[in-house]
Amino acid sequence: MITRRLPALGLAVAIVGALGACATSDSEFPPPQPPAAALHFKATPPGEFPVDVYFAAWRDGYVIYTAGAPPLYLIPDKQGGYIVQSPREGTRWIVERPDGSGWNILSANRPAVYLLKQEGGGYVLQPPGELPTLIVPD
After folding, report:
1. What is the pLDDT of residue 8?
2. Phi-psi map region of 76: left, alpha, beta (phi>0 left; psi -120 to 50 alpha)
3. Model confidence over 6-39: pLDDT tens digits?
4. pLDDT tens for residues 71-86?
5. 86: part of which helix (H) or strand (E)?
6. Which structural domain, as residue segments, surrounds residue 30?
7. Which of 34, 37, 104, 128 could form a disulfide with 65 if both were Cys (CB 3.0 to 4.6 A apart)?
8. Cα(132)–Cα(125) distance, rounded to whole angstroms?
9. How far apart are alpha carbons 10 and 55 in whole angstroms?
């Protein structure tokens, strides 16, 4: 079950990390491992152990690293949102929720996933019909 959630965890961390500061890099391709300046998060799917997720600035966007999953690329769009590219999941779009409570992760072939801000600095990833995943900075 954890392998199914890894891309979603990386995406959630991408959104969270996009709001924080990271060192930039102009490399043509991101490094195969997260750089030392990457932001580190712990994501805990329901009933499972925490997973390390790293978020790093790269070119005009970001790259997200999660063990056992291909990197996710977060590219800013021209309307204040982000486009997410991943080999497994295809293209997804991230838009801020109108009430400022978090973000909607949109996909052409499935319902929206919500990434909601929590008091105290954490976040909750809520796919429809599933238990939430807690994401906290490490």
Report:
1. 54
2. beta
3. 445 555 554 555 444 344 444 566 667 787 888 8
4. 888 889 888 888 988 7
5. strand 82-86
6. 2-137
7. 34
8. 5
9. 8
Q: 25 has which bridge partners?
A: none
Tokens of 75: 């590219």
β-strand pairing of 39-44 with 51-58? antiparallel
Reported for 25-28, long-range contacts at CB under 8 A and 24+ positions apart, including other chains, are 25/56, 25/57, 25/58, 25/59, 26/59, 27/58, 27/59
Instruction: Give how far Cα 58 sits from Cα of 39, 41, 86, 114, Å.
Output: 13, 18, 15, 25
On the question of pLDDT at 129 being above 50, the answer is: yes
In this predicted model, what pLDDT tens digit does every residue of 84-109 receive, in sequence order?
Answer: 887 777 789 999 999 999 999 998 88
CA–CA gap between residue 63 and residue 55 (Å, rounded)? 6
Q: Please tell me the distance from the alpha carbon of residue 102 to that of residue 97, in angstroms, as a whole number.
A: 6
Overall number of domains in the chain: 1
Mean pLDDT, residues 27-52 taken together: 82
